[in-house]
Amino acid sequence: MTQKITVIRGDGIGPEIMDATLHVLDRLDAGLEYEYADAGVAALDKHGDLMPQATLDSIARNAVALKSPLTTPVGGGFTSINVALRRHFDLYANVRPAKSFPNTGSRYGEGVDLVTVRENTEGAYLAEGQEISDDGEIAFSGARITRKGSERIVRYAFELARGAGRRKVTAVHKANIIKSTSGLFLTVAREVAEHYPDIEFQEMIVDNACMQLVMRPEQFDVLVTTNLFGDIISDLCAGLVGGLGLAPGANIGEHAAIFEAVHGTAPDIAGKGIANPCALLLGAAQMLDHIGQPQNAERVRQAIVATLEAKDSVTGDLGGNGTTLGFAEAIARRL
After folding, report:
1. Catalytic residue among 49, 207, 272, 312, which?
2. 231 is catalytic
3. Per the database record, which ranges form the Isopropylmalate dehydrogenase-like domain (predicted)?
4. What's the rounded Cα separation, in Å, for the pair 325 and 322?
């Protein structure tokens, strides 16, 4: 049976890593059909719109999208397209696995195997009432946490743990200081945990969680937290296992899901053919799990591991001198 997915090639190194990823997916013979759509700077240049309606329609129609990085300016300019997509489709669960890989040069060559589940649609990134005083001396941004949002993300984390055979869920918070928003999240997490007696529940203040992740990451299994904390923690976890070049992400909602590489567009190396495609490939593996092809997902992951072990075609960030497409071809040969 054919599965049509929306493909967004992105900005910067996006088109290069997408071409490499599709090369591997094509070798899988997974019955995928691609519907290409534009977003980001490429869409602005072509259509005069960062997120054309046709792209939104494509994602809504197919319910599954594979997306390369999109440009987001720092400190000004247009609002993050990624945030806009999550809000538009109510992609409330951001799922970021971090697992040890061989030959990455990371501090933890083995023993890390955890998942960060981050609430994706509210909290600090909603930035309610965001303003700067006329004299530029005071800035304000509000945060809103809801019982509904907290309950569904914590429940998602427990269901993920149960379905994947994981044993523990850790709720990360700052309820000792931020007693309103973070306090509500923790209260709801405790309530939800009571419905999953088969899963160990732990709660941990965010600063301690970060320290513990660096010192003993093997103690964690599934972490669930609010938007801002989840953004920071998931990147920290990527640093434990080799960096953002090996960090995929899934954005899951009830009616749509978008899978991606979580790193940026890397304009300094765009067009040079040296970007690591693994993050997007691992995101594609998450996509394959989502559409009911776990065996093909595992084939992709094992082929990546085998290529890292052989270290014959890896890119410069992993200590090699391979190209983006060459890396992908080596992975495809090992499927």
Report:
1. 207
2. yes
3. 4-331
4. 8
